[in-house]
Amino acid sequence: MPDRLTSPGAALPGLLQRRTLLCGSALALSLRSVHAADGPWPANPIKIVAAQAPGSSNDSSARALSDYFTQKLGVPVVVDNKPGGVSMIAAEAVARANPDGYTLLIALNSQLAQAPVMIRKLPIDPDKDLLPIASLGVGPVTGVVHKDFPVRSIKELVEYAKKKPVNVGNYAIGSGWQLMLAQLSKETGAQFNIINYKGTGAMVMDLFAGQVDIGAGSLAGMGGGIQKGNVRPIVVFSRKRSSRMPDVPTWTECGYTGPAFENLVESNVLFAPARTPPVVIERIAALVQQSFTESARVKSVNDLLAEDEPPLTGASLRQFIQRTWPSYRKLTKDLGVATAA
């Protein structure tokens, strides 16, 4: 009988020892993770993967941040452009990277929102596989026409496009600009020949050269052409008129009561892979916020995009995404914007 009682008891110390060792190992790993985030991070080079081509507002934001991060952190910070696939090429590269704060994504808010609607087989789930850190340039899109194109308003554009198809430069598949054109075509019968580009840069060059009749983008991409007279603005997608272009009407002021495009603002958002330690996310978000006051280049890019709007982080950024992503998805589906493979 005593043997039966002491036998389980004899095994118990070994079991406890093994559990203690396992718990100790887990604690050590946890402590190393926190220490790596809050102490020596960053100890390695950082890569920012930009979802659009060089010359785009997305690329400009990424490079401005990379310069500031390099100066502030003392480690190399490089930009790797991976355009295409409704931002999913870049997003997949980041989502599958180690969640350690050394691989980040900067992508258009609208494209990550629309990807589940536009791509039949998503390589990742942007809702679950990416963590938002900070927004850069939460601002409206401005629709413009080439200086020689005989249109000065949305109304005139519709009348012209009813008679003859208009060549339209589109800076990104599924952009708010493309949605607006789809809505106009659905409501009025206007004809638009959509020419897709992998970013604003190449589209702007063709627009300024008259290769396309109309286009759209942020003030970062269009501001120079507007100032030089290469293009004319005809509409701004915003709740109110832009302080930099007070004479340009909003979508609603143009007389259209369809989907609320004034609520669909374009924004470059910085993301990290899911499961990146919160302390790393918070540190990067704080750096982005600091950059708006300490870096003239970051502030200049953002001012062109968002008219002095500060970056969104934390709860404010999550609310912004929760408000805009469902709207983009619904509009994309309702308007039948072409689905990517």
Please characterize this protein's 3D structure.
With about 350 residues, the chain is α/β, with parallel strands linked by helices. It folds into two domains: about 45-140 and about 265-335, D-Maltodextrin-Binding Protein, domain 2; about 140-265, Periplasmic binding protein-like II (D-Maltodextrin-Binding Protein, domain 2, 3-Layer(aba) Sandwich). The protein is built from twelve helices and ten strands. Strand 6, helix 7 and strand 7 (about 190-195) form a beta-alpha-beta unit. The protein is globular, with a radius of gyration of 25 Å. Mean pLDDT is about 80; it is low at about 1-40.
Keywords, separated by commas or semicolons:
single chain, 341 residues, alpha/beta, D-Maltodextrin-Binding Protein, domain 2, 2 domains, five-stranded mixed beta sheet, 17% strand, globular
Oligomeric grouping of the chains: single chain
DSSP, total strands: 10
Average pLDDT metric: 82
The order of strands across the largest sheet is 2-1-3-10-4
The coarse overall form would be globular
Q: Could you list the spans in which at least 5 consecutive residues all have pLDDT below 50?
A: 1-38
* Topology pattern, helix = H, strand = E: HEHEHEHHEEHEHEHEHEEHHH
Q: What's the topology here?
A:
Layout: H1 2-38, E1 46-50, H2 57-73, E2 77-81, H3 88-95, E3 103-108, H4 109-118, H5 126-129, E4 130-139, E5 142-146, H6 154-163, E6 166-170, H7 176-188, E7 192-196, H8 200-208, E8 214-217, H9 219-228, E9 231-236, E10 266-273, H10 278-294, H11 296-306, H12 314-334
Parallel strand pairs: 1-2, 1-3, 6-7
Antiparallel strand pairs: 3-10, 4-10, 5-8, 5-9
